[in-house]
Amino acid sequence: MLYSFLRVVVLSFVALVLCACGGTSSAKKGTANAIVSTTENEQVNEFATQNPHPTPSAFDMSDWDIEGADPRVGEVMEFDALREQHVTPNGSGWRHELKIKSEKRVAMTDVYEDFQANIKVEMSDGSKAIVAQHHAGDTGTIMKLYVSDTSEAGFSANTAGATSDSVASNGIFDVYVRLAREGGGEDKHFLSTIISGQAIDFRVINDHGFVTVSGFGEVFSRTVKDSAKSYLKFGNYLQAQHPQTRENVENSEDWAAFYASQNIIENVITFSDISYQRLVD
Ligand SMILES: [Ca+2]
């Protein structure tokens, strides 16, 4: 009897210890999984946790020149190229943009920049706009973020396997990036398709000439071709480009008639949760 009692006590103790160890093991396993998961999604999590969601009032407007009217509306910035109709020499369409002031411009190799924004797109079918770009000192461009309802093709599928629409004026917009390669030429990277009313979770980091662009979970990096007076622009640069043939309308005096002929009557790009960090060497 005593033996049976002791046996039960010993077995119960062993069971308790095993149970406790198992629990500890499960907890450790859970922690380990969390660590593995964080490592696997390090880049995504980094983008998620570093977004400070500032209001435009914290955005330093003294760094920027405005092409068109002040875009600030409450907590967001609204860029309407059809309303502002800003024309620049050698431009390819009406603009409404912010750009780094000329006296603050430096080579991309001399600055660390981190620009983030949620970019809502409300555009008529057939529209094509550049909504963010690193511009070279001359008329060239280094990085361009496009939203385009044109026939442009030649994109590889994104990492999720999605392909570009590449059909003109059907209300499905291809969102893509062009980066000028250091050795000449440029690469383009398809991010996603959207329809009017949807938004892009955009971020571009220039770490001394090494540019990383992200949106829709896609991440694209290049050491880019540089210019001594490079500068960032963002907003709405509405291309005067035929959506089917992709021929540009050269004369700015013809742009109003061109947009009307394509029934491009709405073109508002709204930036919210804007963040811009700039550290010049
Ligand atoms: Ca399309």
Automatic annotation (TrEMBL):
Transmembrane segments: none annotated. Keywords: Lyase, Signal. GO terms for molecular function: lyase activity. Residues 77-246 form the Alginate lyase domain. It holds the Pfam family Alginate_lyase2. Gene3D superfamilies: 2.60.120.200. Residues 1-20 form the signal peptide. InterPro entries: Alginate_lyase_2, ConA-like_dom_sf. This is Polysaccharide lyase family 7 protein. It comes from Paraglaciecola aquimarina. The lineage of its organism: Bacteria, Pseudomonadati, Pseudomonadota, Gammaproteobacteria, Alteromonadales.
